[in-house]
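Re: weekly structure request thread

Next one in the queue (283 aa):
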Amino acid sequence: MLRSEAYLRAILEHSADAIVTTDEAGNVAEWNPAAEHLFGWKREEILGKPAEGIWEEPEERRKLLRLIEKKGRVIDYETRVKSRDGRSIDVSVTMSQLRDESGKLLGTIGISKDIRRRKRLERELKRLAITDSLTGLYNRAHFNERVVEEVERAKRMKHPLSMALADLDGFKEYNDSQGHQAGDGALRKVGRAALTTLRRHVDLAFRYGGDEFVFIFPEVELEAGRTAAERLRARVEQEVGPAITSSIGVATMKDGMSSRELVRAADLAMYRAKAAGGNRVHS
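Done, posted below.
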């Protein structure tokens, strides 16, 4: 028995993963050195305290306990806990019930792996997958997904939705005469103009392809959409004019309009702006 206890103590002491056991009441009964390192609390500080205290959302732990009651064990449950200083920590938790030889519930044992590095990498890969590397705006593939989502959301919430489609006037000539590096520099400036002009965390800006850009204005009627597009047109002219300007078409979703029809309406408005001489907003 003593050798067995010493063996288990050695596992707790030398495990690279945080191991936490709780008693039947949900209070911390064991807390190994890896748990001290991950969560920040010393063993003597946390023993006897409710284990819910280390979870960012206590309901997540209760949800996990309900799963364990059904399955006996849950493997690699990804969630967030919090450190002693309040930092959020992404972890993968494997947890099971502890029972004695008679089957009486004694508590739980949880093994937590720190997955912050993996989560950061996943977030960065996701960002790269939806971002145009030249301009920093969202890319065409992400637009194809988001436009459908935004149209459906606007219909569900009965909110207005406007869109602007911009084409750069004179870009081809500028690119041919000044070279691709200069052309790329102009596109980057247009991207910065969009990011600094539109409503942050509300409006959505995409590089549609080549020298075309598209912007989604949630909860915006046509006139407000035209105003936003005019601000953008003026900023583009300020950044890359007079050699390059922008023709922008604005459309607002009408009853029953699909995402494809909304794009088509903005596209037609953009061509009307081009036909009228460019460097203007049309709807």
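The chain has a mean pLDDT of 94. The chain has two domains: 2-120, 131-282.
Next request, please.
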